[in-house]
Amino acid sequence: MSDVELRHLAAMAAVADEGSFGRAAARLGYTQSTVSQQIAALEKAVGGAVFDRPGGPKPVRITPLGTVVLAHGRDLLAKARTMAAAVDRFKAGDGRIDIGTFQSVSNVILPLLVRGLRDEHPGCDIRLFEEETDQPHVDELDLMFFDGRVEGDVEHRKLLDDPYLLVARRGTFPDGPVRPTQLDGVAMVAHPPICDQARMERALARHGVRPHIVCRTAGNETVLSMVRAGMGSAILPQLALHGADVGSDASLSVHELTPGLPPREIFLLWQAHRTHSPLAARAIEIAVEVAGRVAQRT
Asked: 3-class DSSP state for residue 74?
C-alpha cells in the first residue's frame, strides 16, 4: 500500500465519475494510456482490480475492492486539497505568529505592527505574550521585543534607542534640563531592578548618584500615578512617557538629563538559524518601519 500515490487516486476518482478511461483522460489533461497506467499501478499496489472493464461502449464498473479504495481515496484527496490550500495561505502570509513583548512596546509599537499585519493578512493568527524578564525565552516564540542585547543562540535586529527622561510633579525642578547629580538622595519611584532598569541605575551610580527609591512597581501607569501623588520623581524611557501621553498632563513636567544617560536599546529577537514564515518575515519589516517612525516622533 505504500506505493499508492495521490495521482493514482485522482485518476481512479476521475474514471469512476466519468465512466470511461477516455473521458477521465480528457478531464485530467492526460492521454488515455497514461490513465490506464496509473490505474494499473494502483491495482498492483492494492492487490486486485478496482474496475471491471466490459469493453466497447459500455461504461467501466467499480469493483467491491474499488469501492473501498475509492471511499478512502476521496478522503485523502480532500485532505490533500485542504493541505494545499493551507500551504498557499501560509505562503501568502496567513498562519500563526507568536510575539513576545513588554509594556512600552505593547503600548506604542505593537499596536501599529498588529494593525499592519491585520490590514495585509486579515486571516492571520497573532498571539502576544507580555513579560518583564531578564532571561527572554526566544526559542518558544517566533519573535520577541526586548530591551537589551542577549547572548547565546539568538539573532537580533536593533529597532531604536530609547532615551531616558526625568518626570516629576510640576515645580519640583526648574524648567529645562536637569543634571543627574541633582537626583542624588532625591525620592524616586522606579521599576524593579531588572532588564534595562538595572543598567540605568548602574549608570547613575557611576555619576555618584544614588536616588532614594521609595517605591518600585512594574507598571508604567503606577509609576506615573505615584509621581502625581507626590511620592517622588521617576526616570523613565521616552517610549513609556509617549505611550502614557504625559505631555498633556498639566500636573507633570518632563526634563532631559544633561549629561544624558545611555539610552535603552530596543531589539527584535528570534532564535538563531530559524527559517521565518512569510508572516514573521513581514512582521520584522513592519516593526522596523514602525520603530523608525516612532523614533522620528520622539
From this structure: helix
